[in-house]
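EI: anyone free to look at a 294-residue chain?
SC: sure, send it
EI:
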Amino acid sequence: MRILSRIAIGFACVAISPFLFAQKVAVELDEVADNRVSEGGFQGSLDVKVKVSGPPTEGAEAARIIVKEARDDKNNSLLSGNESIPDFFPREYNNGSIQVSLRQPARSASSVKLKGTVELYVPGRDPASIVKIEKGLSKLDTPFSAKALKAAKIVITPLSPAGYAAASKARKIDDKAIAEIRAEGKKKGATDKEIDEVIELAKALEGLDSASSPNAVYLSGKKSDFDRVYRIDILGPDGQPVSIPSRGTSSRGDSTIMTLEPSSPAPPDSTLKLALLTDKTKISFPFELTVSLP
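SC: here you go
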């Protein structure tokens, strides 16, 4: 593997609103991990880390890079065609660096050109995007009743240990689930080998659903609903977020369980703070970036 750091800068500019007119977002190359291999059937990869900066990033809590085109200088596409839209990545993580993973370039390629979109999450642009639920854990196994969530048509339910056990059991990969995975795969044109790999991955993920933890807070709902939630925090008596060292989500189809494990048990009268991804909170900028390969 070869590493190359801070060697190129790409710029993007677009008129979003009178306030942002003519302002720029810069996409700066931070690091390149070029792992081109040609042994057996193993496929290498190209991992590109970038940072975004510029006036519009002020107030942005998170960002994401959506790559729409990636080609090496031999005109080979480095996208698989099955890319999903990535999650927003907190700006304070990894010193603001965001990673993009691509297919390996040709052995003889010396550069890659990326085109796509930078999206910023700026909650301050929409006060309605922050929803606080007082005594959020006092009624387990019952969906949150906050008006803001109902207005957004987002349904999320805090689970009791028994509710979590029942939800985990319902997500088991049985023969019916396998048949549905195969049917969906065939519909999308996947090969039998690709479908088998998806089934094996689903079985492996199933093992992540374990017995409930004493400190854990479990929230369930549709994946499509959780996709519109950037972050969920538990607030302490002082109104500040408590420490949550471990966070995670597990999805099966459109069913998702989010797990929050605070350092100490959260009281039933804890306030939960949900940061929603609304249209007003997201700002998009096109970008182009040329990456020189090691």
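EI: The longest strand covers residues 24-35.
SC: 👍
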